[in-house]
Amino acid sequence: MCSKRPSWLAAGLSALACVAGCALLGLGGCNPNKDQLRPENLFGRIGHGQPGQIIEPKKCQIRVAILDRPSRDEALNDVVWKSADEQVLPPETRRALEVNGLRLGRITGEIPRAIDTILNAPPPHKVEPTSFYLDDGDSTLISVTDTADQVSLLLNRQSHPYGKDYQTVSGYFRVIANHQGTDGVSLRFTPELHHGAVRRSYQPMTSSASYAPQEFKITDGQEEEMLQDMAATLEVGPDQVVVLGCFPEQSRSLGGFFFTRSEAHSDLRRQKLVLIWAARNQLGTPADKVARTDRPEPGGLLDRLAAAAGKTTAAKPRAGDPATKDPAVVRTGGAAATAH
């Protein structure tokens, strides 16, 4: 004889099955807001764009042109500094540079015609700027001197003048680039001296693991003397250019070593002037492609960075554009390069 289930138990099981079925229907097909629960819509709301877009990391481009003229050339010593604003630097920074023979300023708007003439001289004297593409906060070295076997310099650091001899020495500016404001780039310039024999050193490598064994990397290089008390920071916009130069009469100063040299097989001297333009990508711009190599891709980030420097005009070039073609060689951050 089989037993019959109580009526209250059967009614309870039926009600429970009904509630579960309604819940499943609500999640699967009855919920009017089911699209909002999909993962791709969630990411779309976070990025405020279409699903699958990649937001570019912060990137900066700097273009460096080095002019080489006879010493005390009027264009490099007079004309350009009438247009360059040296007062953008704090007084103490400007003083630290001046007593060491260095000059730093910023031109806004059109560059002087005399400088444009030197930049766009007929070949083979035409100046081709060198481009550096950097991650935000990354740095690169700009070489402004040839290596000298021996140099005696008169330095003035923290109001303390002294002389120092260097062997096998080269001069560089370390440039750090950062996004600044809505469309500006902050550039920090620090002079460096690399000197002495090339030596091998072992530098510790940092690790995120707490108990990872200590690892070292082998580095071959000269001794590097970074002159932090002569560092200067400038913000550069799309229509501005940074000017780096010297006081040529201070021949034994740091500026004299960086920007002047003896002409080969002659008692005449030459003088240099450095022009630097800066551009950047815009935050939140979707990337068309993610670069898989160190070569620039057509239509990608690097092309847009180059276009951000502005369009050129033959008659009156802006300070944001040297009116020259991009060079064939691209330098990345952390590498030293000489712009010719």
Please provide a written account of the structure.
By secondary structure, this protein is an alpha+beta fold. It has one domain. Helices cover 21% and strands 39% of the residues. The chain is built from seven helices and 16 strands. It has helices at residues 7-30, 39-47, 74-83, 91-98, 113-119, 254-259, 301-308; strands spanning 54-55, 59-70, 102-108, 130-135, 139-143, 148-157, 160-180, 184-205, 215-226, 232-236, 240-246, 260-262, 269-280, 286-287, 330-332, 336-338. Strands 2, 3, 4, 11, 12, 13 and 15 form a seven-stranded mixed β-sheet that branches. Strands 5, 6, 7, 8, 9, 10 and 16 form a seven-stranded mixed β-sheet that branches. Residues 42-49, 286-298, 311-318 and 320-340 have low confidence and may be disordered.
- The residue ranges in which pLDDT falls below 50 over 5 or more consecutive positions are 42-49, 286-298, 311-318, 320-340
What is the residue-mean pLDDT, rounded to a whole number?
A: 77
Q: What is the molecular shape?
A: globular
Cα(first) to Cα(last) distance is 106 Å
Give, in order, the helices and strands: HHEEHHEHEEEEEEEEHEEEHEE
Kindly estimate the percentage of residues that lie in beta strands according to DSSP.
Answer: 35-45%
Estimate percent helicity.
Answer: 10-25%
Radius of gyration: 30 Å
Q: Let me know the largest β-sheet.
A: 7 strands, mixed
Count of DSSP-assigned helices: 7
Structural category is: alpha+beta
Oligomer: single chain
Q: How many strands?
A: 16
Number of domains: 1
